[in-house]
Amino acid sequence: MKVAVIDINGKETGRKADLSDAVFGIEPNDHAVYLDVKQYLANQRQGTHKAKERAEIAGSTRKIKKQKGTGTARAGSIKSPIFKGGGRIFGPRPRSYSFKLNKNLKRLARRSALSIKANDKAITVIEDFTFDTVKTKNFTAVLKSLGLENKKSLFVLAESNKNVYLSSRNLKSSEVITSSELSTYKILNANNVVLLESSLKGIETNLSK
User: Fold this and answer.
1) How far apart (Å, rounded) are the C-alpha atoms in residues 1 and 118?
2) Positions of the region Disordered (predicted)?
């Protein structure tokens, strides 16, 4: 698949990038995509929720009223879940929501996500760029040139670039990552995926294993 390479001003450079069909042109596997996104979201959960159960409530252990003759149901403890201030029945406990996935399945999911974006013509390839200083307006100017100022965008670099990353950090609708940080969720969550020319080799190498 051939895609025109443009510069940060939105103009064509005259070059074309070759997107591998093995990564950007496969038949998407919806179930693999579902599992990879599910794992990503599960890993974001802290799992620190906790409610006190009956045995953890501080309070008297005496029997609060006699067993018979009151005309009401018997009750043996003020810490019972049926009373205000009592413990919670089967309350949440700290736990990990993470689960494992096969590496090949995760690669398939990411290839599927990139293929979906490529099929929707939501992938843009631009030539490599950097900024001399950290300025949000520099990154905003790039977004405007590419017509992405009002859209969610994901910029994929070949390697970490501090100035580009910090210039984008204040913008909620844009995210800058390296090719090794690419995930199915981030690809699908963006309206447009912007690939720097030098990142293509890393993406194809990582996802073709």
Assistant:
1) 9
2) 45-77
- Alpha-carbon distance 204 to 44, whole Å? 27
Domains of the chain plus CATH, in order, are: 2-45+101-207 (3.40.1370.10), 47-96 (no CATH)
Ranges of H-type helices in the chain:
21-24, 30-43, 103-119, 136-146, 162-168, 184-189, 199-207
Q: Which residues pair with 202 in a beta bridge?
A: none
Q: What is the pLDDT of residues 153-183, one digit of tens each?
A: 999 999 999 999 999 999 999 999 999 999 9
pLDDT tens figures, 39-61:
999 999 999 999 999 999 999 98
Question: How many CA atoms lie within 13 Å of 67's alpha carbon, on the beta-carbon side?
Answer: 0
Stretch 79-100: mean pLDDT? 94
> Residue 196 is inside which H or E element, if any?
strand 192-196
CA 86 to chain centre: 38
Sign (positive or negative) of CA dihedral 53, 58, 61, 65: negative
Task: Give the global pTM.
Answer: 0.84
Upper half-sphere CA count for residue 87 (Cβ side, 13 Å): 16
The letter for the amino acid at 148 is L
